[in-house]
## 1
Amino acid sequence: MVEPPPNNADQATPNRILPRPAPQSLRQLFWAFNGLALQGFGGVVAIAQRELVDKQQWLTREEFVEDWAVAQVLPGPNVVNLSLMIGDRYFGMRGGMVALAGMLTIPMLIVLLMAGLFAGVSDSPAVQGALRGMGAVAAGMIAATGLRLFAALKNNVLGAPVCWGLAAMTFVAIAFLRTPLIWVLLVLGGLGTLWAFRQLGRLERNAP
């Protein structure tokens, strides 16, 4: 006699694919991007990576790198482009507009208020020194985020050596050679795109 298979929900749980974290409402989307914007004092990319990948888990590190690359290439502020992309992905056009509103509404009011207050003290040496200190911190935040995101490149279709090479050439071109960004994107970005198409074609031909 063959015994029936055990009907145990606990044993079946590890085999189930857990649902992907996602914004559950337009309100959650609005406040998530509002919180992101209010924390982004000069280093929005660092806050965006922490909020969207580590906290909300709406994106993996690999997905964040890819989406940020697209946002970087498109005209306009990077984080604004990213908010539109993510909002549209989950709720269509409404989501894009709500995410954009979360990014801009309250921060815009704060910036207008701060601009009015700053106008009267902008020539103060103490204020100028404080701004220089904030600039150094913002640069450190961006550098730290870049180093954290390098781990996502090990699975990139380009291959880790090519990714490191392109990153190094981009740094040299912008930091030392002062090459205009448009030429860096066209030349190095174009080379990276062509190499990615080549690698994807090889993977497709070798697929079983």
## 2
Amino acid sequence: MPARRQGKTARERQPRRAPAAEERQRDAERSRERLLAAALEEFSAHGFAGARVNVIAGRAGLNPQLINYYFGGKDGLYRALQQRWLEQEAAFADEGSPLEDLLEAYLRASFADPRMARLLLWGGLEHEVGTGERLPGSSEEPDDLADLRRRQADGEIAGEFDPALLELALMGATLAPIALPHVVRRLTGLDPSDPAFQDGYADQLRRIVRRLGSTA
């Protein structure tokens, strides 16, 4: 029989070191990011109602209880995704840019990652109240609408256009390739992911926006 060990080595006798606060913070941030990434996949594919917390946690490789711990549940996780979009939007949406540049920035962001656009479309289908939504009867005007009114006052948009309805039309134009990929393929013979379609569509939208300042 092998000789029994008489004791632990000096290394084994040392007490385990508790994770430092910075390490715990990094672990928490990584877990949150993994949950947000998995949630974006699930919510964009199935909407809020169809998304399953267990599936999200499984995608992230984490315990479902962490969704409650970090986000307060499914609702909080969904709101965190909406907030993430607002942060991404602030990074590329420069209100000081010409309107055609601004519109193309939104379009390119949707092409680069269609999941946020799908999340917005699901929100409309499920009739949920989104982040920053203007409730009926509210007198407070959204910042994006106020920006269009400013552009109209500066002559970038002709006075014949209603800024609110114009914004709705432009949003529809940027979302159309994501919402209607089969129509894109039928009309153009190209897939929305094809760079040839994306460049051509972006060019056409820029041409349309340039016309907005003219009444001719």
## 3
Amino acid sequence: MKTLDIYEELKGNAYPGRGIVIGKSADGKHAVTAYFIMGRSVNSRNRVFTETEDGIKTEAADPSKLSDPHLIIYSPVRVLGNKTIVTNGDQTDTIYELMDKQQTFEQSLRTREYEDDAPNYTPRISGIMHVGDGQYNYAMSILKSADGNPDSVERFTFTYSTPIAGFGHFIHTYMGDGNPLPSFEGEPKKVTIPNDIDEFTNGLWNALNEDNKVSLFVRFIDIETGKAVSKIVNKYSK
């Protein structure tokens, strides 16, 4: 698979929607993830990421402008033991709750499908990172309609059991802007991952479309110790 420069990939797409990057730092010391949200409407843009005890949540930047919390207010990141869950919707909670009951990542997502936002039928994208005992692996998932047909759901899971230092995978909701929005196609894109969290955060944020970007979360987890360092960037403030 061709390796892409994540920054150039983002610069070339004015509206990738919501996106998840998971990989391994170039020095091999950190498990890395990033999650971003974008918006075209006032309701979608009226959001910020805030920290919680086990991750982050989305909140309204200006509660008076929140017209519909459905599909935009959720917890994108939660931690369950040595597992970090990253998704673009409330399936974060589904994965957390069912994996806590000993179901697998894939089994948990079999209870969900694409979002109920016709005519877009936005895909649900999810990631799971396992970091423990000096070991690291991750998986990614996409639940989508069959070429926009709401009568058929397609489920794809991609597993990366031995991540390579300096590389990761990028999955997002839309191939670009449009009406209806065209869903992501194919397997997660192979991208490069740097060593430095500030470099990665700044590079991603600067590459996202200025008009449409809303919030960005980046986390580096030390594979040996499990210690995590995170960064949040919000375009709009509370």
## 4
Amino acid sequence: MNSADVLDQLLKALWAQYKKRVPYAAQYQNMVEQRGGKVQNDHIAYRTINTQMGQPAGIEAIARIFTALGYVKKGRYEFTDKKLTAWHYEFAADPEKNPKIFISQLEVDKLSPQTAMIIKESLKGAPDLLSGEELELLNQLRKDKTLDESRSSSLVAGLVKFFSRPWAPPLRSIVEDVNKESQYAAWTLLHGNAVNHFTAYINHQNVAEWPDLEATVNALKKAGLPMKDEFEGETGSKLRQSSTQAFDEECDVREKDGSKGRLKWSYAYYELAERGTIPGPDGKPIKFHGFLGEQATNLFEMTKRG
């Protein structure tokens, strides 16, 4: 298999896993396909924490996988109020073919000393869920662009397992305390490397009765999906976004006495994005593939709890 085949298998596995955890995404897919349309995802988002542990700190933990599978680094973003930095990556061969990857990281040292210490202690010693063999296969794929079928299948299985929480379930009290300063940190302590959200690419939806984002959102509301109250971006702008509300799930935590507990918390929403154009180098319009900081900030808030 070549790197494109491995990437395709990984994306399909992550999408299937995500739909089981976020039924809104599966409902959207069913509604689109019933109308003869197509579901194509615009981007996948991940959250990370910039501190030392078994896996690389912050963004690089996720980025090393996708750059080995044909992605290149593009735009950088800062969210000063939330103490976040982010990059987005595009599939080099064709940015319209595969979803962009948006990876953010919490700059933990910019939090209060007490909160930073709590987070670092919670993650210290967490292993890298990618084994040495899997890292070697990734490097081989990056260099040679191909692997035999059995090694490719083994690599995909290992990559899917990586997108989970590598550290032990956090203490309930720590999640609740950290959440007071950073809901992003609380979410990441609970969910680790799991996909934060997928995003429907409305431009490729091809449902005649849903010609744009607004028509799609109205149809989803009518079908009973809980949608975000406001749109991000103006009609006809270079990027307009909406989303479902975040789906809550029971998360593993540890209680003060060391026993196992469960804490109901947000997991993920399903985002929808419609892209417009910007002037290209020659003055002709080209599709806008980036992200807008203020709009992304508002979407971060969709997983806020407590």
